[in-house]
Design a protein that fits this description.
Helix content: 55-70%
Number of helices: 23
Order of helices and strands: HHHHHHHHHHHHHHHEEEEHHHEHHHHH
Number of strands: 5
Amino acid sequence: MVAVFNKELLSWYLITLKLKETLESGIPSSAEFPEKPPQQQQKLQQEPSEPLQVIINEDGENLKEEASSQESEWVISIKEKLEQARQDDVASSWAKLSIYKIPHYLRETSGDDKAYVPQIVSLGPYHHGKRRLRQMDRHKWRSLNHVLKRTKQDISLFLNSMKEIEERARYFYEGPISLSSNEFVEMLVLDGCFVLELFRGATEGFQKLGYSRNDPIFEMRGSMHSIQRDMIMLENQLPLFVLDMLLGIQLGNPEQKGLVANLALRFFDPLMPTDEPLTKSDRNKLESSLRSIATFDPLSDQGGLHCLDVFRTSLLRKGPQPSPRIWNKHRSRARGVADKRRQQLIHCVTELREAGIKFKKRKTDRFWDIKFKDGILRIPRLLIHDGTKSLFLNLIAFEQCHLDCSNDITSYVIFMDNLINSPSDVGYLHYRGIIEHWLGSDAEVADLFNRLCQEVVFDINNSYLSPLSEAVNRYYNHRWNTWCASLRHNYFSNPWAIISLVAAVVLLLLTFAQTYYSIYGYYRPPKKPIRKESAHQDRFWSSS
């Protein structure tokens, strides 16, 4: 019994040792794992011990495969975005960009979204197909029908010509255009012919083109001004070479250039910020050029991009402009870096008048050509109407977006903004004949200029008015000029003040003379003369 009992104990002992070795081989040593923090050890001691469980997830391999597939899709999406960015960054697509979307910082600070967004007619792809602008589409189709009827040409000729230049025309616009190829070509033909009909009708007369005298669009003068304002907006432009080609097809000379630019100047002449209309001789030259299919192009050496660019060039083309120079050599910055703290070129009208600076109207049609000499600031006349704000805002936006053009319009507007701080400044400039406006009050004009250049990026060192501003500020900072101006303002403002001043000066001189002689007589009294009779009596008494 004993032997058998010991044999059973030995068997259980061997089984226990085998299980111990198996467990020890399956549990890693403490060196393989970092020592747990004391807080975790204390927590483990407090928790009841649980038996060791080995969990085998049958879907482990599937989870790993799913995670790897998600990561690969993520990498693929990033590569696709990089490829799209590479395509967007193609040099040829950006080099010809000239019809921009208005930046948000300009649109929000202007306070008038209607100044950038067309209200009646859409041109180009940015506002194409908008519901409130569709009413004009039927008139566009009428104009195209008039063109085909008058020229006796097939529509396929226009479509095929636009198809050839479609890719080049797309480069003029910012961002991808959602229109298909056929839709884009149709838009170019429809909008382009509509624009050309307006241009030619303004020069030749709409009745000569076959339109009725009571046509709701092509003869209604009330709506024409709103159409002109829409067509001068930056987002509402067509490439000029497209218009050149369409007009060339109508006239039988597809290679002609320059005529559209002149027609555009004639059409947009009422929007000019001067009161100098297009001369009769210029109008006759335009009409004769249409009849002879010749080119009369004062802008031929500059090559316009679109109608807004042509209009801006026409404003600045007459006469040489002063070149900009560094505003302050000691504190100048790199070219192209703007500082909002240094955008003030000049003081306001009220402050300049106190310093003795005079304002006079300069007789010229170049409204930007300002002169200063001998304390006199000569500014050409500026005509302000209800379309001036939209015109200046779009011109400034074009100069802000297009790097290949100067900032002359922006420089002029900022200069006038510095001059005008209050309605009284506008009133004085109006009194001097410098500003003529059709707005409700002088306060509206002051508010207009104060809002035009908010958040505008402007480099004072790149302004053609910086030399003039330096000269004005030097004159303003000279104290002698301020004293003389104060004297003229207080004592020489009217004849009665001059008479009072002269009388006061004479009275002061007389008082001074009287005081002088009184003091002089007190310290130096006159010597008394010796009487001759007294001297003779003295000699008589002495002899006796």
